Amino acid sequence: MMRTLLIGGTSAIGEQVARCLAVAKGTLCLTARDIRCLDAIAADLKVRGAVQVEIERLDMTDAAALEGLVSRAVESLGGLDTVIVAAGLLPDQNEVNRDSQRLRETMEINATSAMVILNEAAALFEQQGHGRIVAIGSVAGDRGRATNYAYGAAKGALEVFMSGLRQRLHKSGVQVLLVKPGFVDTPMTADFKKGPLWASPERVARDIVRAMEKGRSVIYTPWYWRWIMLIIRHIPERIFVRLRF
Q: Could you tell me if 31 and 58 are in contact, meaning their C-beta atoms sit under 8 angstroms apart?
């Protein structure tokens, strides 16, 4: 029975991952800012098969609330096997360009606060000699683009952090998985024009759970984004700066 702390339980991807874990008879501790929405999700997860579901209101910009979060999950679940960070913020780059506070918030939620939680999880799992750390990054972290480089910079920083964490914890038998979704049809992307490259949260969640079970380190989801980003990363900078996509 897997005991999981899931940060961002009301996010579209986070909720779908929680559903997969509930069906597998897991126990979960979910966090999010919207406690009423979280309460409704918890009730649904119990119907789907979750043995235990605890919830906690969490604002990722509240440094005091982040402190001891993993320890509180351990206490409420009687131990911990997995920590998943699915919380995130996708800002309008034009707003970021005009407002430095928006830039600070973007980095704090997508990178700094996530790292604080993962660092605490790493200390626990390193000590107990097993565990699983999962963070949702983005293909945007592979290369900065004019339309979303603040978000991409945060996700790129998270990727470097996860790489170092993976090397640190390798001998401890702890899995460190970075998930790099492409375009996902969620409320956060509701205003975006959709196309054939877009995926559902359900598909991404299935890929995440499958990667966890297989002990993977990094996945692109859906799979074709690995090849798309391979091409984009290898475009020479003198050509890349002239492109608009």
A: yes
β-sheet with 218-221: strand ranges across = 52-57, 27-32, 3-7, 82-85, 131-136, 174-181, 218-221
Rounded (5°) CA angle 58-59-65? 65
Does the annotation mark 149 as catalytic? no
Of the CA atoms within 13 Å of residue 192, those in its CB half-sphere come to: 18
Q: Any idea which residue has 């979704």 for tokens?
A: 181
Q: What is the pTM of this model?
A: 0.95
Taken in order 145, 150, 152, 153, the sign of the CA dihedral is positive
> Phi and psi (nearest 5°) for 178?
-105, 125
Residue from 149, 151, 220, 224 carrying the catalytic annotation: 151
Q: Express each pLDDT in 41-97 by its tens digit.
A: 999 999 999 999 999 999 999 999 999 999 999 999 999 999 999 999 999 999 999
> Residue 100, Cα to own-chain centre: how many angstroms?
24
